[in-house]
């Protein structure tokens, strides 16, 4: 075998192998210190693209869930206000029933009338003043779209402008929203029965027949609702259930929307979990494998270092030939 001094092939080979072992150790050190297998594109070009795409979707789903939970809070706020409206309407019904009783005097009915007017004014105030994040939600103008998905147009929309399926017929926008008169304006459509029909028997009690103009819109206004006489109390008693039905109908719609939000959160939480698992399998470092790999290259680095020392000493054999 030839003996060279200027070019030590054995040394160069050992240097290359030791450099390779050190590079692999550096990669293992990086993965073990970060817990991530793909720290840069050089580690896995395709994997990096997939991981970033999955990460974006997971972030979108998690934000969508937060948005949906905000939507739940919104619907709960609206439904809570409408529950109070329903409670006050039931109280009006009780007072109308009490005023219809013949044992009450005129002054008794006037006292009852004061509470009915106060309750009616409070219904109007709730409709006018109830807000969520400074947006009025019961005045007939509110509509919203909640971004619940991770991608564009994955939304849930609802509004407080109407009750029931027909927005054109059951609109509350032009009648002040969920004010007393606004609720009364759609009562016959929701209940499928007008006040004239509901109060058809009143003339048998009061001696005054119901007129064609005696409808929900005229009898149920905060400024004019009256139980000061038996006839008026009977009108209110006959029609107030239809107003309660309007409120309950909208509450049912809000409940359905809230259930939809909750289903969305559950579904997207499951999807986010599975996407995170897929991302983990691609991105996260396997500590057992990386530790074994690090140990392997540490041994190779030490062995290469020892061999390099011996390879560097080989040219010294030429000195023995010169002697």
UniProtKB/TrEMBL annotation:
Keywords attached to this entry: Bacterial flagellum, Cell projection, Cilium, Flagellum, Secreted
Compartment(s): Secreted; Bacterial flagellum
SUPFAM superfamilies given in the database record: Phase 1 flagellin
Signal sequence annotation: none
Pfam family, one: Flagellin_N
Gene Ontology cellular component terms for the protein in this record: bacterial-type flagellum; extracellular region
Recorded GO MF terms: structural molecule activity
Main location: secreted
Domain Flagellin C-terminal: 238-322
Flagellin N-terminal domain: residues covered: 5-142
Family according to the record: Belongs to the bacterial flagellin family.
Role: Flagellin is the subunit protein which polymerizes to form the filaments of bacterial flagella.
Protein name in UniProt: Flagellin
